[in-house]
């Protein structure tokens, strides 16, 4: 299972890549495997400011629909439009082409509450 060491993680199986005051967010390799074939990603919160742990969208797989929880408070500044036509890239490349949103971080202290790759591995028993 792929759990890159340079990323941060949440208990809800999102990954976070911090670049300055912007965070790129997606779901982990573990999450996409648990969900199965992803057929649709919906994010209707573009340009909205949300609190940490608020739902920013949903991911739909063949068998289920799951909420996506924002790992950090901030404004959703970008959505990965490629997911509208290629949602399966979340399965094939969850940490690359399958990223979901970019967030302008409003509370940098929240970054410290995210899990390291080792803590996430422990959480999922990897």
Automatic annotation (TrEMBL):
One Gene Ontology BP term is:
protein lipoylation
| Co-factor(s) | (R)-lipoate
Name the UniProt key words of this record, in alphabetical order: Lipoyl
Where does the record place the Lipoyl-binding domain?
22-104
Per the record, GO CC terms? cytosol; glycine cleavage complex
- Cofactor stoichiometry and binding remark: Binds 1 lipoyl cofactor covalently.
Which top-rank group of organisms is this from? Bacteria
For the modification N6-lipoyllysine, the affected residues are: 63
Biological role stated in the UniProt entry: The glycine cleavage system catalyzes the degradation of glycine. The H protein shuttles the methylamine group of glycine from the P protein to the T protein.
Q: Which NCBIfam families match?
A: gcvH, PRK01202.1
For this chain, the family text in UniProt reads: Belongs to the GcvH family.
Subunit: The glycine cleavage system is composed of four proteins: P, T, L and H.
* Name of the protein described by the UniProt record: Glycine cleavage system H protein
């Amino acid at each position: 299972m792929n759990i890159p060491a340079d990323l941060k993680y949440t208990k809800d199986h999102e990954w976070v890549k911090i670049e300055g005051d912007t965070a790129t967010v997606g779901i982990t390799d573990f999450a996409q495997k648990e969900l199965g074939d992803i057929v649709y990603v919906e994010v209707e919160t573009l340009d909205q400011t949300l609190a940490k742990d608020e739902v920013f969208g949903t991911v739909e797989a063949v068998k289920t629909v799951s909420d996506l929880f924002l790992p950090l408070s901030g404004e959703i500044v970008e959505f990965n439009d490629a997911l509208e036509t290629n949602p399966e890239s979340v399965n094939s490349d969850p940490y690359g082409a399958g990223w979901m949103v970019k967030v302008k971080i409003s509370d940098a202290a929240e970054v410290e509450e995210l899990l390291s790759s080792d803590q996430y591995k422990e959480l999922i028993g990897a």
